[in-house]
Amino acid sequence: MSAPNKRPAFDPASELLKPVRTDPDMKRPVSTVAGAALVFLRVLAGIVWIVSVAAGWSNFVRDIDVSFDDIAYTPQLAEVTLLVVMIVIGLFLMADAILALFILRGHNWARVVVMTFSAISISASFLQWWAGGLDIRISTTLLSIGLDILILLALSSRSAAAYARRNEHRLTD
């Protein structure tokens, strides 16, 4: 005998295929706030990484192996390479923070972009692990993988999708 008002452990396909409700006055759900907060945490983790690289700049420059066929290795080349990598990562972090703000404002495209990036990041980590080249530890990639999984869970919820699509107008047959 099942308890009344108890939700089943799985949703039937008929429920999953129903279009999400579009209510322009819908309040921002917790799942959307949690997803955006997790994106901000991912940005914060990236900033911490950049600061740690800057703090140990000479060690990182010494350990970088920048070698090309026609270009001789110099410490200046290693510094420039590391600086370019940090700038590119900084730009990605800035874009991620901007996307989190758009998610909070309820833009569906930003939610989809962040979920796509998270799925690609998780898949890339898995493929690197599968190939035997990635050691997943807390000090390496476990934090970023965990954040990406939590971001996917929060932003793919029905409430987050409904909030992001609350202003869409659907044609009815």
- The portion of residues assigned to helices is 55-70%
Number of strands: 0
Count of helix runs: 7
- Class derived from helix and strand content: mainly alpha
- First-residue to last-residue Cα separation: 40 Å
Number of domains: 1
Low-confidence stretches: none
**Percent of residues in beta strands?**
under 5%
Shape category = elongated
What value does the Rg take, in angstroms?
21 Å
* Mean model confidence by pLDDT: 83
In N-to-C order, the SSE pattern is: HHHHHHH
Specify the biggest β-sheet: none
Overall description:
This protein has helices spanning 13-16, 30-55, 57-63, 75-105, 108-130, 138-155, 158-164. It is mostly helical and 173 residues long. The protein has one domain. Helix 2 (30-55) runs antiparallel to helix 4 (75-105), helix 2 (30-55) packs antiparallel against helix 6 (138-155) and helix 4 (75-105) crosses helix 5. The protein is elongated and about 65 Å long.
What is the fold's blueprint, element by element?
Layout: H1 13-16, H2 30-55, H3 57-63, H4 75-105, H5 108-130, H6 138-155, H7 158-164
Helix pairs in contact: 2-4, 2-6, 4-5, 5-6
